[in-house]
Amino acid sequence: MRRIEEVFRKLRKKGDGALIAYVTGGDPEPKWTAKIVEELIRNGADLVELGIPFSDPVADGPTIQAASTRALESGVTPRDVLHIAREVRERFSTPLVILTYYNPIFRMGVQKFFELAEECGIDGIVVPDLPIEEAKEYKKIAEAHSINTIFLAAPSTSSNRLQKIIKYSSGFLYLVALYGTTGARKDLQDSTVQLIGRLLSYTKGQINLAVGFGISKPSHVKTILESGADGVIVGSAFVKVIEENLDDQQQMLQKLGKLTKELKKATLKP
C-alpha cells in the first residue's frame, strides 16, 4: 500500500480526517521551503502539497498567485521544488504531493519528470489543467513510478465525467468545493455540503475524498469532515501567513505551526 492510502487508512480507523497542507515551493525563498514544510508536519499536517510556481496559474486566487510571483522572483525552478521535497523526505515519511500545471511537466518531459519525482520521494501529483482525455500516457508513466495521480472534480462535473475522473485518480480525489479560484473564505457555502453528499455515492469504497478551495478555519474543517469527506486541503490560509511575515521568518514558522495545530485539532474524532 502506498503512503497516501496508508495515511488515510490509519486515520479512518481512528475516526479522524486528514489535514492536507499546501504551500508554494520557493516562497518566499527556496532555502526556507523545507523549514516551512517541516513546521507543518511537526504540528500535525498528514500530507503536504508543494506547488511548483507557474507564471500563469489560472486556478489560483491572488494569494497563491502572489506566492508564485515571489517564488519565481527568487529563482526557483521545478527541479528545485523536487529537490526541496527530497530534503524533507530524508527526515519525514509524511506523504508529499506536487501540485503543478502541465507546462513544467511537458517542458521537462513526462518520463524525466516522473523519474525525478520518484527519486525525490514524491507520492502524488496534482495537475489542475490536465484533462483526463489527454492523460492516458501520463497515467501509465505515473503508475510505472508508483506515484498517485490525483485529479480534480468540480461542482459542475457531470456524473458520467465524475466516474471517468475517479477511474483515473489514485490516492485521493480532489474536490474543488466552489466555483472560482483558490482563496480563503470567511464562510463555508451550504452548496459545498450538498456537493460532498453527492460525490460520496461515487467515491465511498472507491477512493478517498479530500475537499479544497476556500477552507481556512477549524469550523470549516469540522463541517466538511462531518459531511463525510475523508480529508481537507488548506492552502491560501497557510500562504497568507507566509505573506504577512516575510520580514520575520521565525514568527512566520511559529504562526504556521499554530494554525496547523488548530486545523489538525478540528480533524480529530470528538
Question: What structural class do the secondary elements suggest?
Answer: alpha/beta
Low-confidence stretches: 180-187
Main sheet makeup: 9 strands, parallel
Based on DSSP secondary structure assignment, what is the total number of beta strands?
Answer: 9
- Count of discrete alpha- or pi-helical segments spanning 4 or more residues: 12
Order of helices and strands: HEHEHHEHHEHEEHEHEHEHH
- What's the name of the CATH homologous superfamily? Aldolase class I
**Cα-based radius of gyration, to the nearest Å:** 17 Å
Shape, per Cα inertia axes = globular
Mean pLDDT: 92
CATH architecture: Alpha-Beta Barrel
Widest beta sheet: strand line-up: 5-4-3-2-1-9-8-7-6
The CATH class is identified as Alpha Beta
* Distance from first to last alpha carbon: 28 Å
Q: Tell me the count of domains.
A: 1
The helical percent reads 40-55%
Please report which band the strand proportion falls in: under 5%, 5-15%, 15-25%, 25-35%, 35-45% or over 45%. Answer: 5-15%
At the fold tier of CATH, the topology name is TIM Barrel
